[in-house]
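residues and backbone:
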Amino acid sequence: MALLTILFCIILLVLLVSWAKVNPFLAFIIVSVIAGLLLGIPIDKITASVQTGLGKTLGEITIIIILGAMVGKLVATSGAAQKIANILVNLFGVKYIQWALVVVGFIVGIPLFYNTGFVLMVPLIFSVVYKYKLPAVYIGLPMLAALSVTHGFLPPHPSPTALVGMFHANMGTTLMYGLILAVPAIVLAGPVFARTLKKMPSTPLETFRAEELPDDKLPGGFTSFFTALLPVILLMASAIYLNNDHATGGFHKFIAFIGDAPVVMLISIITATFTLGTMQGRSMKDVGVLYVDAIKDIAPILLIIGGSGIFKEVLVDSGVNNVITQSMQNLHLQPLLLGWLLAAIIRISLGSATVAGLTAAGIMSTMVLHDPSINPNLMVLSIGAGSLAFSHVNDGGFWMFKEYFNLSIKDTIKSWSVMESIVSVVGIVGVLILNQFV
């Protein structure tokens, strides 16, 4: 009965978001209250579960996500992203310009949240398309594949960051494993798959022609690369050190402190404020305005994450998550594969990668936390891969790609939807392979 109740609640969530067009945060609250009532939580305890779930989830990740959004906004608006693109295009040449854009998408996608990255990078794609008279989908899709992979696999993006906290995984280790998986996923879903799309007709709208900054207004190459990659450098360097040095002295504690994700992002935003802000002639007031805009951009995602935390807490407080865990174990499916499958089903149903990842994680959390044989870092990546499966008409990213590239729905499915599915499948295959060695 408990499992049927959970299934009913998930279906209700799907209908509220996709059919009734209810805001996902509000839908999560409604479904969580209904779930609490149906699962037998005392009526005077349901509100406490809602508040606890919201507080616990956002308390762990809000600093990381907001500071990450601020860094990404400054990287984009300062011209650092454009500078990175210019350098890579010069290095790769016109013949390999597609690969240059893939690298740009990956580097810029690390600190930049997906929707922001999409809107800001697509004009760059079109500037290359117009300048060199190249097929738009063939050139652009690989770059967007890179953005998608970083969004689904790599902290400090919202879903993987939240999953790290939910599974008590290690941020640096997850990032390293994610980078290993990212390379084949991007290559296969990007340049390799795009070869089949060279003849796909696409006439990008004139509205989206890039308005590039003049070269003398761009930050330097080292400054651009260093600032965009600083969060990754700090997370990876501290993780490598701590995994190889098990001392308990003051220096070890200091490295652990500066390698903690909130501190990493604080160091990164302070650095970016100077390297891409005041040192580029911006006043602190102007930089502050950009940061406010970044918070506005990320607020809806934070609320969705908080809503998923509410749903998870209701499951935990009702005790039904233990029933689900036992039932899933009886299915004898590999847990990593099960996490991927759950996220994929929810993603296809709801459209949102973030909602899919966090909802699946809420269901899988007890199993992961109580079974030491399950690698929590790989579970983060497994669910992240599942959350990218087959984007279609209920996903905002699908429509962004369709409208920006001026494609039919059929061609959008043949290009965008298939690309996302390739990323998802390559991701879970990579996770299962890594699980044999780590």
The mean pLDDT is 86. The chain has one domain: 2-434.
